[in-house]
UniProtKB/TrEMBL annotation:
Gene3D superfamilies: Bordetella uptake gene, domain 1, Periplasmic binding protein-like II. Residues 1-24 form the signal peptide. This is Tripartite tricarboxylate transporter family receptor. The keyword Cytoplasm does not apply. It comes from Antarctobacter heliothermus. It comes from the Bacteria. Belongs to the UPF0065 (bug) family. SUPFAM superfamilies: Periplasmic binding protein-like II.
Amino acid sequence: MLGSLKATAAATLMLALGTGAALAEYPERTIEMIVAYGAGGGTDIAARTLVPFVEKHLGNDASIAVINTPGAAGEIGFTKLAQSEPDGYTIGFINNPNLITIPIQRKARYSLDDIQPIGNVVYDANAFVSRADGEFSDLAAVVAFAKENPRKVTFGTTGIGGDDHLAMANFARLAGIELVHVPFQDTPSLRTAILGGHVQLAGLNISEVIDDVDEGSLIALGQMTDQPWELATDVPTFVGQGYDLTMGSQRGVAAPAGIPADVLAKLEEAIEKAIADPEFRAAAEKQRLPLQFIDSASFIEGMKRQDSDLRQIWNEEPWIK
């Protein structure tokens, strides 16, 4: 009996040592990071800025190759990530709510259950803006006018189903008002429209408008975050103005569901250390990236909650007719 116990203990120790060695060696080859959007865009630039610092904190001469896989508003890249081998050698730089809304809006080739979030990197809060010489200087003025004049306020966004469109729809629902939605192809065209007075209000991420706000051409009526971004402390939050709304563009790292727990933990730790790295933070500030690390457990919890909320909105009033 004693010999049997010793053999079992030895086997257990060897297994533990083997697991530790395998983890210490990870990564043994190049990791591919899928970016579901084209090269040179905001998501791609953020991913490529982050990668060297994740490599640094992974150790073991880690190498991460960014693979751009654009198309179908991100669905092609998200699908490739979801269907990849969950071995830690394929990860993705994901965007929310895009990753969440695609399977709600249409039959997609992936679901939220196919994705394992690792850590969030950026939270770029939605902001509502008007021209400095426009008729609205705060959210209360928008609501008062819109209640007296239904469907007389034009509101521009960067497209149907995006985070800024959903932010607008949520705000209108909570405030009990009707706004006229004017979708634009991209951020530059929407920015041109609001600066030119072609729409009365616009929904953009706070990092995209802060320069215009600082120079005085636009007024930010509010930002959808619990605490103001450190570079926009003068912009009031929606919560502070009585609207329980937090929404923005999250950019983080994820893997296919089923990734080994030890590899997940090592990647999560490396991302957290990368975000805290002073060199990365300096680079992010130059790019106006509002950083917000969210650990894996909290990240998936928030995504599931957002998925539930958006499905309820979709069932009540689909944002695509």
